[in-house]
């Protein structure tokens, strides 16, 4: 299966279209306090111009059900990324509201790598409505988009060795220069990048976006050939 690649924290149509044009599987939009924060109205003006087949993921931090549901509806989101300790009921209700015969809302649960990561992954794996776990880093000032990588070797020996039901997405501090190494060490189902492909907060660097996607794709092939 091809590596899933998400370019997150888009704030403009040009950046989202760039990600789609170079082969990203998903684009993300941050609906939480951040230099990259956008409103549902702004995102709705972006997503209506994007290809139907690219995933459109909303990023929420401790948001309530109605706030997320309204954004999914208005923006045509195909998935949500939940930064929250309590996701089970929220995920299940979001799935129920938006599941149709042709559509299944993708739910990603964010887990910050650290002492509680294995326990949290086990908990998330028991939530039938959660599709994937995004393993991220965290700093005192930010719960995402930190630009800081976690310890990949330690993660490989613990959380990425777990035979969990969930797909695992590597995030946190990734950029075009290190994504090859990250994929080789972690062998994730997907990768996620935000600040690592920016010219400045909230604006993507086209060359970095292209390089990241290309190197992520090539790194998966290299990892397969080396095994």
Key terms for this structure?
227 residues, alpha/beta, eight-stranded parallel barrel, two-stranded antiparallel sheet, 8 helices, 10 strands, 37% helix, globular
Distance between the termini: 15 Å
The helix-strand sequence is: EHEHEHEHEHEHEHEEEH
The low-confidence runs, each spanning 5 or more residues with pLDDT under 50, are none
Largest sheet: 8 strands, parallel, barrel
Global geometry:
globular
Strand content: 15-25%
User: What is the number of helices?
Assistant: 8
DSSP summary, beta strand count: 10
Strand order of the largest sheet: 1-2-3-4-5-6-7-8
- Using only CA atoms, what is the Rg? 16 Å
In round numbers, the mean pLDDT is: 90
Structure explained in plain terms:
- With 227 residues, this protein is an alpha/beta fold.
- Helices cover 37% and strands 20% of the residues.
- The protein has 8 helices and 10 strands.
- It has helices at 13-21, 40-47, 65-75, 88-98, 117-125, 152-157, 179-186, 206-226, and strands spanning 4-7, 26-30, 55-61, 79-83, 106-112, 132-136, 167-170, 190-193, 198-200, 203-204.
- The strands form 2 sheets. The protein has an 8-stranded parallel β-barrel with strand order 1-2-3-4-5-6-7-8, surrounded by 5 helices. A two-stranded antiparallel sheet has the order 9-10.
- Helix 2 (40-47) runs parallel beside helix 3 and helix 7 (179-186) packs parallel to helix 8.
- The mean pLDDT is 90.
Short description:
With 227 residues, the protein is α/β, with parallel strands linked by helices. The chain has helices spanning 13-21, 40-47, 65-75, 88-98, 117-125, 152-157, 179-186, 206-226, and strands at residues 4-7, 26-30, 55-61, 79-83, 106-112, 132-136, 167-170, 190-193, 198-200, 203-204. Helix 2 (40-47) links the parallel strand 2 (26-30) and strand 3.
